[in-house]
Design goal:
The chain is mainly β. It has a single domain, classed as Trefoil (Acidic Fibroblast Growth Factor, subunit A) (Trefoil), CATH 2.80.10. The protein contains 1 helix and 13 strands. Strands 9-8-5-4-1-12-13 form a 7-stranded antiparallel sheet. The longest helix has 19 residues. It is globular.
Protein backbone atom coordinates (compact mmCIF):
# COMPACT_ATOMS: atom_id res chain seq x y z
CA UNK A 1 0.00 0.00 0.00
CA UNK A 2 2.89 2.38 0.84
CA UNK A 3 4.37 1.94 -2.65
CA UNK A 4 1.01 2.75 -4.24
CA UNK A 5 0.68 5.90 -2.12
CA UNK A 6 4.24 7.00 -2.94
CA UNK A 7 3.63 6.43 -6.66
CA UNK A 8 0.41 8.46 -6.49
CA UNK A 9 2.24 11.33 -4.77
CA UNK A 10 5.00 11.27 -7.42
CA UNK A 11 2.47 11.43 -10.26
CA UNK A 12 0.56 14.19 -8.45
CA UNK A 13 3.70 16.32 -8.09
CA UNK A 14 4.72 15.84 -11.72
CA UNK A 15 1.20 16.64 -12.95
CA UNK A 16 1.03 19.73 -10.71
CA UNK A 17 4.32 21.00 -12.12
CA UNK A 18 3.09 20.29 -15.65
CA UNK A 19 0.05 22.49 -15.08
CA UNK A 20 2.33 25.42 -14.21
CA UNK A 21 4.06 25.12 -17.58
CA UNK A 22 1.26 26.90 -19.42
CA UNK A 23 2.53 30.12 -17.85
CA UNK A 24 6.11 29.53 -18.95
CA UNK A 25 7.66 31.60 -21.70
CA UNK A 26 10.63 30.68 -23.86
CA UNK A 27 12.07 27.20 -23.90
CA UNK A 28 14.52 26.60 -21.08
CA UNK A 29 18.01 26.24 -22.52
CA UNK A 30 19.77 24.75 -19.51
CA UNK A 31 19.41 21.54 -17.53
CA UNK A 32 18.98 22.68 -13.95
CA UNK A 33 19.06 21.45 -10.38
CA UNK A 34 15.70 20.01 -9.30
CA UNK A 35 14.57 19.33 -12.86
CA UNK A 36 12.98 15.96 -13.69
CA UNK A 37 14.24 14.70 -17.05
CA UNK A 38 14.50 11.76 -19.40
CA UNK A 39 18.00 10.98 -20.68
CA UNK A 40 18.42 9.45 -24.13
CA UNK A 41 21.49 7.56 -25.28
CA UNK A 42 22.58 9.37 -28.43
CA UNK A 43 23.81 6.24 -30.22
CA UNK A 44 21.06 3.71 -29.53
CA UNK A 45 18.19 6.20 -29.01
CA UNK A 46 17.03 4.51 -25.82
CA UNK A 47 15.96 6.36 -22.68
CA UNK A 48 17.53 5.62 -19.32
CA UNK A 49 14.97 3.53 -17.45
CA UNK A 50 14.42 1.62 -14.23
CA UNK A 51 11.65 -0.33 -12.51
CA UNK A 52 11.09 -2.55 -9.50
CA UNK A 53 12.82 -5.53 -11.12
CA UNK A 54 16.02 -6.78 -9.50
CA UNK A 55 19.04 -8.32 -11.19
CA UNK A 56 19.18 -12.10 -10.87
CA UNK A 57 22.98 -11.95 -10.73
CA UNK A 58 25.63 -9.50 -9.55
CA UNK A 59 24.45 -7.12 -6.84
CA UNK A 60 20.80 -8.22 -6.92
CA UNK A 61 19.86 -4.53 -6.79
CA UNK A 62 17.18 -2.77 -8.83
CA UNK A 63 17.99 -3.07 -12.52
CA UNK A 64 18.59 -0.16 -14.91
CA UNK A 65 17.88 -0.52 -18.62
CA UNK A 66 17.28 1.50 -21.77
CA UNK A 67 13.85 1.64 -23.37
CA UNK A 68 12.70 2.77 -26.81
CA UNK A 69 9.27 3.70 -25.41
CA UNK A 70 9.31 7.48 -25.19
CA UNK A 71 6.18 7.73 -23.03
CA UNK A 72 7.25 5.29 -20.29
CA UNK A 73 6.78 6.93 -16.87
CA UNK A 74 9.64 4.85 -15.42
CA UNK A 75 12.19 6.93 -17.32
CA UNK A 76 11.95 10.10 -15.21
CA UNK A 77 15.01 11.11 -13.14
CA UNK A 78 15.32 14.00 -10.67
CA UNK A 79 18.63 15.87 -10.70
CA UNK A 80 20.11 16.40 -7.23
CA UNK A 81 23.39 17.55 -5.73
CA UNK A 82 25.92 15.08 -4.36
CA UNK A 83 25.40 13.57 -0.90
CA UNK A 84 25.54 16.26 1.77
CA UNK A 85 25.64 19.05 -0.82
CA UNK A 86 22.96 21.54 -1.84
CA UNK A 87 22.29 23.00 -5.27
CA UNK A 88 19.91 25.89 -5.80
CA UNK A 89 16.68 24.81 -7.44
CA UNK A 90 16.55 26.07 -10.99
CA UNK A 91 20.29 26.81 -11.20
CA UNK A 92 22.05 25.45 -14.33
CA UNK A 93 24.25 22.41 -13.69
CA UNK A 94 27.91 23.41 -14.24
CA UNK A 95 30.01 21.12 -16.43
CA UNK A 96 32.32 19.12 -14.19
CA UNK A 97 29.92 19.13 -11.23
CA UNK A 98 28.89 16.03 -9.30
CA UNK A 99 25.21 15.11 -9.25
CA UNK A 100 22.86 12.31 -8.26
CA UNK A 101 19.95 11.07 -10.38
CA UNK A 102 16.96 9.87 -8.39
CA UNK A 103 14.49 7.54 -10.10
CA UNK A 104 11.12 9.21 -9.57
CA UNK A 105 8.99 6.06 -9.38
CA UNK A 106 11.11 4.10 -6.87
CA UNK A 107 13.06 6.91 -5.13
CA UNK A 108 16.38 5.11 -5.61
CA UNK A 109 19.51 6.66 -7.08
CA UNK A 110 21.38 5.75 -10.26
CA UNK A 111 24.31 3.74 -8.90
CA UNK A 112 27.33 1.69 -9.87
CA UNK A 113 29.97 -0.49 -8.22
CA UNK A 114 32.42 -3.31 -8.97
CA UNK A 115 29.92 -5.93 -10.16
CA UNK A 116 29.77 -7.33 -13.69
CA UNK A 117 26.78 -6.52 -15.86
CA UNK A 118 24.64 -9.59 -16.73
CA UNK A 119 24.83 -9.57 -20.55
CA UNK A 120 28.09 -7.97 -21.68
CA UNK A 121 30.29 -8.40 -18.62
CA UNK A 122 30.94 -4.66 -18.32
CA UNK A 123 30.34 -2.80 -15.06
CA UNK A 124 26.82 -3.15 -13.62
CA UNK A 125 24.55 -0.12 -13.31
CA UNK A 126 21.76 -0.33 -10.75
CA UNK A 127 19.47 1.80 -8.60
CA UNK A 128 20.26 1.94 -4.91
CA UNK A 129 19.17 3.67 -1.71
CA UNK A 130 16.19 4.04 0.59
CA UNK A 131 12.75 5.44 -0.12
CA UNK A 132 13.98 8.95 0.75
CA UNK A 133 16.47 8.95 -2.09
CA UNK A 134 19.52 8.44 0.13
CA UNK A 135 22.27 6.00 -0.82
CA UNK A 136 26.08 6.31 -0.75
CA UNK A 137 29.04 7.59 -2.79
CA UNK A 138 28.28 5.00 -5.47
CA UNK A 139 25.45 7.35 -6.51
CA UNK A 140 27.81 10.15 -7.58
CA UNK A 141 28.25 11.07 -11.25
CA UNK A 142 30.28 13.85 -12.84
CA UNK A 143 28.63 15.74 -15.69
CA UNK A 144 31.14 15.90 -18.57
CA UNK A 145 30.00 18.51 -21.08
CA UNK A 146 31.67 20.92 -23.51
CA UNK A 147 30.80 24.36 -22.13
CA UNK A 148 30.37 26.09 -18.79
CA UNK A 149 26.96 24.59 -18.01
CA UNK A 150 24.88 21.65 -19.19
CA UNK A 151 22.51 22.69 -21.96
CA UNK A 152 19.67 20.67 -23.41
CA UNK A 153 21.42 20.46 -26.77
CA UNK A 154 24.60 18.96 -25.29
CA UNK A 155 25.63 15.36 -25.73
CA UNK A 156 27.05 14.82 -22.28
CA UNK A 157 28.88 11.98 -20.56
CA UNK A 158 28.23 10.83 -16.99
CA UNK A 159 31.40 9.65 -15.27
CA UNK A 160 31.01 7.48 -12.17
CA UNK A 161 33.12 9.00 -9.42
CA UNK A 162 33.99 5.86 -7.43
CA UNK A 163 35.03 3.69 -10.39
CA UNK A 164 35.92 6.15 -13.21
CA UNK A 165 33.53 4.38 -15.58
CA UNK A 166 31.19 6.12 -18.02
CA UNK A 167 27.46 5.45 -18.26
CA UNK A 168 26.80 3.63 -21.55
CA UNK A 169 24.39 1.43 -23.48
CA UNK A 170 25.85 -1.98 -24.40
CA UNK A 171 23.59 -2.69 -27.39
CA UNK A 172 22.53 -6.03 -25.86
CA UNK A 173 18.88 -6.60 -24.94
CA UNK A 174 17.20 -8.60 -22.19
CA UNK A 175 14.60 -11.33 -22.43
CA UNK A 176 11.75 -11.82 -19.98
CA UNK A 177 10.56 -10.20 -17.77
CA UNK A 178 11.99 -7.04 -19.38
CA UNK A 179 11.99 -8.27 -22.96
CA UNK A 180 13.58 -5.94 -25.49
CA UNK A 181 15.01 -3.47 -23.00
CA UNK A 182 18.70 -2.65 -23.45
CA UNK A 183 21.48 -3.31 -20.97
CA UNK A 184 22.96 -0.16 -19.42
CA UNK A 185 26.56 -0.47 -18.25
CA UNK A 186 29.67 1.33 -17.11
CA UNK A 187 32.64 1.41 -19.50
CA UNK A 188 36.15 2.84 -19.18
CA UNK A 189 36.55 4.08 -22.77
CA UNK A 190 34.86 7.21 -24.08
CA UNK A 191 34.77 5.72 -27.58
CA UNK A 192 31.69 3.62 -26.79
CA UNK A 193 28.01 4.57 -26.58
CA UNK A 194 28.57 6.98 -23.70
CA UNK A 195 26.76 10.13 -24.87
CA UNK A 196 23.41 11.23 -23.42
CA UNK A 197 21.01 14.07 -24.09
CA UNK A 198 18.28 15.55 -21.92
CA UNK A 199 14.95 15.04 -23.64
CA UNK A 200 11.41 15.26 -22.20
CA UNK A 201 10.97 16.52 -18.67
CA UNK A 202 10.14 19.26 -16.21
CA UNK A 203 12.86 21.91 -16.49
CA UNK A 204 12.94 24.43 -13.64
CA UNK A 205 14.35 27.87 -14.28
CA UNK A 206 13.50 29.77 -11.12
CA UNK A 207 14.73 29.35 -7.52
CA UNK A 208 11.15 29.10 -6.30
CA UNK A 209 8.86 26.63 -8.08
CA UNK A 210 5.82 28.59 -6.91
CA UNK A 211 6.92 31.48 -9.12
CA UNK A 212 5.75 29.18 -11.95
CA UNK A 213 8.75 29.87 -14.17
CA UNK A 214 9.32 26.40 -15.52
CA UNK A 215 9.12 24.60 -18.83
CA UNK A 216 7.75 21.12 -19.35
CA UNK A 217 7.97 18.65 -22.21
CA UNK A 218 6.59 15.18 -21.42
Amino acid sequence: MKNIIDLFISFFLVNTICNFSTIAGAKQRYVTCGSVVKLMNSDYRVRLHSHDVKYGTGSGQQSVTGTEVQEDVNSHWAIKAGTGEVCQRGKPIPCGSVIRLEHITTNKNLHSHHFSSPLSGNQEISCYGDDKGEGDTGDHWMVVCPGDSWTRDDNIMLKHIDTNQYLAASGKTFGRPINGQMEIVGVRSTSGSVHWQAMEGVFLHAPNIMEKHIHTEL
